[in-house]
Design brief:
Two copies of one chain form a homodimer. By secondary structure, chain A is mainly alpha-helical. The first copy, chain A, folds into two domains: 43 residues, Arc Repressor Mutant, subunit A, CATH 1.10.10; 131 residues, Tetracycline Repressor, domain 2, CATH 1.10.357. The first copy, chain A, is 73% helix and 0% strand. In chain A, helix 4 crosses helix 5, helix 5 runs antiparallel to helix 7 and helix 6 runs antiparallel to helix 7. Chain A is elongated and about 60 Å long. Chains A and B meet through helix 6, helix 7, helix 8 and helix 9 of A and helix 7, helix 8, helix 9 and helix 10 of B. The structure holds a DNA duplex (30 and 30 nucleotides).
DNA sequence: GACGTACTAGACAGATCGGTCTATAGGAGT
DNA sequence: ACTCCTATAGACCGATCTGTCTAGTACGTC
């Protein structure tokens, strides 16, 4: 068991350094030299393991995706009713916001820095698909008249909250989003299950 | 009239080039050389006029702020009732989304690329303050029970919509946001003018 | 014609970038 | 003992970055 206890592998140390530096300062700003220095590895180790900076960025974002989805999923098991589970997404978001290292959605910032066809954009697309699917499923379970439509609306609040938490340095954005989500949910339950009223 | 008709000044050409390239590809990705080449000016002209790239970024964002606020303000004069004016913000947003060059909120992307104390962050803060103030004023005029609270909620939808329009390439995000905003507005009007119910 | 202003063209400096390469060292499996 | 694998340190390459500097040009005003 020398892997995790005594000394993590080079790959793990590099990913940890990337997770910290890329997230805090941006994937464009942080250079390879900073990463290997912070991880305490040789440059060759990084390129033997990941091949390029772009692939390292992809691995960094994929690990974040895994962390966030696991964390949110686990947090939702605390709640019993469908309504509580749906609104619980914003509670889980609020917990992230209060962490001192929180610096916004990693996929949004990385995507803003990267070129159009880059790995960052692909990883962001995948993450957004997961969020959308989560909200859609929760909206269905809650009995919303139009689950897709409610999921889209909740996704707007979710994105807006993470953006406000970063740019306005306002961790209470998740509370505002949660309250707004409750109003939207109630309205979606009031609507008849199959009709389109604008 | 040789200024605007025949040949714009170097400053105007530089700003136009910055507005196009910075917005499309990012302030970090686009270098000074690309700007001066696209503007057709000498490098010395850029540095004599703006002093540094950071100041050029600030000027670029300030010009965008002026453009957007002027455009939104003018669009809102079309509507008569307070309710229409409030929801009209999302109509104006939808018009921006349909433009082929739309690439998300310039302040969000620029802020994601720039360092913490940079001009971009300052310009973004200023812009966000304007948006917040606009929503607050419209919420007051519409007679919302808690205008600040409603403004915060609408701001989440507004940010979420621009983010979705860019990342999901979905111009209809403004329509979703507008529908959600209508629900939130109605609820804010139903609430008694001075009480706090969670 | 002289002069100041605004501009252009482009070399240049100093730093940093992503990425490759050489050379070396230690540990595990045969 | 020998080899393979993984790791190390660090020189090195070509490209690119922001910013400076020199030199020369067109124009409008006195």
């Amino acid at each position: 068991m020398p892997r995790t206890a005594v000394k993590p592998s080079a790959r793990e140390r590099i990913l940890a350094a990337a997770n910290e530096l890329f997230y805090r300062e941006g994937v464009q700003t942080v250079g390879i030299d900073r990463i290997i220095e912070h991880a305490g590895v040789a440059k060759a180790s990084l390129y033997n393991t990941f091949g390029s900076k772009d692939e390292l960025v992809r691995a960094y974002l994929e690990s974040r995706h895994a962390n966030v989805s696991e964390r949110v999923t686990r947090a939702l098991t605390r709640f019993r009713t469908p309504r509580e589970r749906l609104l619980g997404v914003f509670d889980a978001q609020g917990e992230l916001f209060t962490e001192p290292t929180y610096n916004g959605c990693a996929f949004v910032t990385a995507s803003a820095e990267a070129a159009l066809g880059s790995s960052a954009r692909q990883a962001a697309e995948k993450y957004r698909g997961w969020v959308r699917g989560l909200f859609t499923r929760l909206a269905e379970e809650a009995g919303a008249a139009d689950p897709d439509d409610l999921a889209r609306r909740l996704h707007l609040l979710y994105d807006g909250a993470s953006l406000s938490a970063r740019m306005d340095r306002d961790p209470s954005a998740s509370t505002t989003a949660r309250a707004a989500a409750a109003v939207l949910l109630d309205e979606a339950l009031r609507r008849p299950p199959s009709s389109g009223s604008t």
